[in-house]
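Can you give me the bound-state structure? Components:
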Amino acid sequence: MSLEALLAILGMAAVTYAIRAGGLLLANRLPATGFAASWMKHLPGAVLAALIAPVILAGGAAEAIAAAATALIYIVSRNLFAAMAGGVLAVYFARLVLGG
Amino acid sequence: MHAPAPPGGPAQFWLGVRMFLPVAISIAAYGVVWGVLAGQAGMSVIEVALMSGLVFAGASQFVALDMWTPGSLPILSIVIATAVVNLRILLMSATLRPLAAHLPLPRALAAMFFVSDEQWAMTMAEVRKGSGSIAFLLGTGVLSWLSWMLSTLCGRVLGAFIDDPTRYGLDFAFTATFIALLLGMWKGRGDLVPWIVGALAAIATSRLIEGNWYIIAGGLAGSFAGAVAETIRERRHVA
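Here's the bound-state model for the whole set.
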């Protein structure tokens, strides 16, 4: 195991535990509703959207088709694994057909 | 008025374990996916065990994988992205404060390690029923941790048997997983603004700045816009 990996993992662990413990310690000072609470609530979704968008934009037609297929499978099945497997299969066949 | 629930004890712990069982199974499915992707990203078995065991926060671990480039790990942006994704947990452990009121602080702080979306949601649901305690949270948390640890390791070991990921389209597994994770977070139209602004800000940032900063920039911009939109909607509702 490399030093950089160890540092990254320990950094992630420290910051995550600090947040978990911090909530308990700062409970009386944190807003339960309002702007700041709403902002924190929207963070994970916005991060995921930020992760996905540039990747899909940089990909070709095969990736766009597979992204649509993944979304459709997830909406219908509500199953993460089925959506992932379906997306991978879709990109595989789309690349075969489109020669990507 | 019902009598107040007993402040904890083994009975609450095991109730938490039993009630969490179905959730633990879906966490395991999600963990296997993460483990396979971790192998693709070049993480060793020990690194997987350390990250799952110490960080123990699924969404942020998925984001970290996307930034995992062994040899030149962007440590700072990985840690910042982790903080950004996990900041929501701050509000969760804050709402657990009343349950911890009678406990010694070190014990309450140790229990906070197990707070994540599913464990918190189930404990709060139990509180609304008039039960629920830190012991209950511990029961859900310990089972959740075991399930996450074992499933991510399984995924990592199984994934090692796949040689060239692009040949099978497996390079797309990341994007597919993120799309499904994002759609799973959908709670209503209020999510449109943060998602669209986050996506656009990320695209713009990825063109302007080298590296992975577009993830953090998009996340911060999108969630900020989401909070602005929500605040405006609420004001209109009141007025």
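A couple of observations. The helical segments of chain A are 3-25, 35-58, 61-77, 80-98. Chain A has two domains: 1-30, 34-100.
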